[in-house]
UniProtKB/TrEMBL annotation:
Domain of life: Eukaryota
Keywords: ATP-binding, Nucleotide-binding
Lineage of producing organism: Eukaryota, Metazoa, Ecdysozoa, Arthropoda, Hexapoda
Listed name of the protein: Uncharacterized protein
Species assigned in the record: Folsomia candida
Similarity section: Belongs to the heat shock protein 70 family.
Length: 188
């Protein structure tokens, strides 16, 4: 079982290992992975690599997107963020918030939930590579000030992207993961 804590600036993945909790290192041997997703004419870039190229690809690098999850386009906070962020926020057809980017030379629109799912996918792939096993269970730290819509968004992302056996955690991921038994994951 793994635990995930998605932050506005950084994300962490932890695993129960050797009767303790160990933070999983990313591709750069860092424990913290930048909560950043970027798009280029050739590929999608996640985490540290996306943060590293932010100044050269400002309008196609999405960061600080967590507070926008589950919000409606008309929300006052969203209208304020439109003026603040360097990337282009647009209304999503569902009424939520989306971002418009240039990806493979085309203008594309992705919801904030889709951007978060991209980050989660990257965290999952990196973690499976490091652990040399398939993730079957996960715990995800509770989003601060989460409303019912945001809780459902998070559950849908985690269930569809990471694993079918998803659990919410009320505490930080590092303490919450201890509450659940390590199941279905063999660590070599």
């Amino acid at each position: 079982m793994i635990g995930i804590d998605i932050g506005n600036q950084s994300s962490f993945v932890a695993v129960v290992k050797d009767c303790g909790v160990e933070t999983v290192d990313n591709d750069y041997s860092l424990r913290a992975t930048s909560s950043v997703v970027a798009f280029s004419s050739r590929n999608r870039i996640l985490g540290v690599a996306a943060a590293n190229q932010q100044t050269s690809n400002l309008t196609n690098t999405i960061s600080s997107f967590k507070p926008l999850l589950g919000l409606r386009w008309e929300d006052f906070f969203v209208l304020d963020e439109v003026q603040r962020v360097p990337y282009k926020l647009v209304p999503h057809p569902s009424g939520g918030v989306a971002v418009q980017v240039c990806y493979f030379g085309e203008e594309r629109v992705y919801s904030m939930e889709h951007i978060t799912a991209m980050l989660l996918t990257g965290l999952k792939v990196t973690t499976e590579t490091v652990l040399k096993s398939v993730i079957k269970n996960c715990v995800m730290a509770k989003f601060q000030n989460a409303n019912a819509i945001l809780k459902n968004v998070k559950k849908n992302m985690a269930t569809n992207v990471i694993c079918p056996h998803f659990q919410n955690a009320n505490a930080s991921v590092f303490s919450a993961i201890l509450e659940f038994r390590l199941a279905d994951v063999e660590i070599s």
